[in-house]
Amino acid sequence: MSLILTEPADIRTWAEARSGQPAMAELPSGSRTKVILQIAFDQYLLNSGEAQDQDRPGGLDLVSWDEWIAELKKQNLGLRVPDDIPGSLDNTYEFVSLADNPMD
């Protein structure tokens, strides 16, 4: 089973319990820019320091939770996560459109 997280505090608590941090990438899409949201976990954080090329197109940038949540709301997305299993912290997630998955 899984559940869809929509409340900012729930999303942040879930991610931080798994050492996740908010990240975004901006990708060119025609004459516009598309913003891609991600949650970066342990290994990515180790590789995201200043030694890495921060100017490469499509590269992930760590951002504040406020900025990340604002973009999540702008895109009308929720976070589908697996039910918690005692003794395990699964960091699998996917974004889901809240327009396609009404919470009523």
Task: Characterize this entry briefly.
With 104 residues, this protein is of the alpha+beta class. It has one domain.
Explained architecture:
- The protein is of the alpha+beta class.
- 24% of the residues lie in helices and 33% in strands.
- The chain has one domain.
- The protein is built from 3 helices and 6 strands, in the order βαββαβαββ.
- A 3-stranded antiparallel beta sheet has the order 1-5-6. It has a 3-stranded antiparallel beta sheet with strand order 3-2-4.
- The longest helix has 10 residues, at 8-17.
Helix-strand layout with pairing:
Blueprint (H helix, E strand, L loop, with lengths): L1 E4 L2 H10 L3 E9 L2 E9 L1 H5 L14 E2 L2 H10 L2 E6 L11 E4 L7
Antiparallel strand pairs: 1-5, 2-3, 2-4, 5-6
Q: What characteristics describe this protein?
A:
3-stranded antiparallel sheet; alpha+beta; 104 residues; 33% strand; 3 helices
The number of helical segments is 3
The residue ranges in which pLDDT falls below 50 over 5 or more consecutive positions are none
Strand portion: 25-35%
Q: Number of DSSP strands?
A: 6
- Distance from first to last alpha carbon: 18 Å
Question: Quaternary arrangement of the chains shown?
Answer: single chain
Give the overall form: globular
- Sketch the topology as an H/E string, one letter per element: EHEEHEHEE
Structural domain tally:
1
Radius of gyration (Å): 15 Å
Helix content: 10-25%
Mean pLDDT score: 84
**Which structural class best describes the helix and strand composition?**
alpha+beta
